[in-house]
């Protein structure tokens, strides 16, 4: 492969369908999805990817049954505790984008502790999008942007990069490759600003089955594409 994307964003879709195909409860699909996430994170770090952003829980996911939401939160908290050592061993910096303040105090503390524990790592930045919505992110950025104008700054002097400083992803490079599993052809309110010129790769593979060979296929196709950025 000639080019490795600096920033990969993944919409991890298909856990429920994976479980349904096997006559298993949906939570089993989510548990298998966590295993896949661990493998993909390690593979991206080894390949030299600078940033990996994973769509973990959207603002719309609160509409799911409460039992499933509780199971997802428990899985997330357990995964954080189990993987802190692994992230440090792989020199991965942990990050959260979205509005995690809606989560339980114990989950918020686990997230904050992991951010602190990995803050000095210099390798790949792993961002989990939690209680995240692309439109909400742009709205939050617009509010902060407006505050700058109210301070007396001339809005005509602002460029796109100035606005991007107010996004949740302000410290990350632009998304180069967005991967969506399970074959759905939509971006689902994910990183709407950041994927303006991203290459999009959609696979029918359900997320629990998306292991390292599938990741390599996506990156290989990305490497073969000619990126024009609108030119």
List the helices and strands and how they pair.
Elements: E1 7-11, H1 15-21, H2 26-47, E2 51-58, H3 66-89, E3 93-98, H4 105-117, E4 125-132, H5 134-150, H6 160-164, E5 177-180, E6 199-202, H7 212-224
> What percentage of residues falls in helices of 4 or more residues?
40-55%
Mean pLDDT: 94
Strand content: 15-25%
Report strand order across the widest sheet.
3-4-2-1-5-6
Query: What gross morphology would you assign?
Result: globular
- Category by helix and strand content: alpha/beta
What is the string of SSEs from the N terminus onward? EHHEHEHEHHEEH
Give the number of domains: 1
CATH architecture: 3-Layer(aba) Sandwich
CATH homologous superfamily heading = Decaprenyl diphosphate synthase-like
Number of helices: 7
Distance between the termini: 24 Å
Describe it for me?
By secondary structure, this protein is an alpha/beta fold. The protein has a single domain, classed as Decaprenyl diphosphate synthase-like (Undecaprenyl pyrophosphate synthetase), CATH 3.40.1180. Helix content is 44%, strand content 15%. The chain has 7 helices and 6 strands, in the order βααβαβαβααββα. A 6-stranded parallel beta sheet has the order 3-4-2-1-5-6, with helices on both faces. Helix 1 packs across helix 2 and helix 2 (26-47) runs parallel beside helix 3. It is globular. The protein starts with 6 loop residues before the first strand and ends in a 7-residue tail after the last helix. The model has no long low-confidence stretch (mean pLDDT 94).
């Amino acid at each position: 492969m000639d080019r490795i994307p600096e920033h990969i964003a993944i919409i991890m879709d298909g856990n429920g369908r994976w479980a349904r195909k096997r006559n298993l409860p949906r939570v089993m699909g989510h548990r298998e999805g966590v295993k896949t996430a661990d493998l993909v994170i390690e593979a991206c770090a080894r390949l030299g990817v600078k940033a990996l952003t994973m769509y973990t829980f959207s603002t719309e996911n609160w509409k799911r049954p409460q039992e499933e939401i509780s199971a997802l939160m428990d899985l997330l908290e357990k995964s954080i505790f189990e993987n802190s050592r692994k992230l440090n061993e792989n020199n991965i910096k942990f990050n959260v984008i979205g509005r995690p303040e809606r989560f339980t105090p114990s989950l918020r503390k686990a997230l904050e502790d992991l951010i602190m524990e990995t803050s000095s790592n210099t390798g790949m930045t792993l961002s989990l999008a939690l209680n995240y919505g692309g439109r909400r992110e742009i709205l939050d950025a617009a509010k902060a942007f407006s505050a700058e104008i109210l301070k007396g700054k001339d809005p005509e002097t602002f460029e796109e990069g100035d606005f991007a400083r107010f996004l949740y992803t302000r410290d990350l490079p632009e998304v180069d490759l967005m991967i969506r599993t399970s074959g759905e052809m939509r971006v689902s309110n994910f990183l709407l600003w950041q994927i303006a010129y991203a290459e999009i790769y959609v696979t029918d593979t359900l997320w629990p089955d998306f292991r390292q060979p599938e990741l390599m296929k996506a990156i290989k196709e990305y490497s073969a594409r000619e990126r024009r950025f609108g030119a």
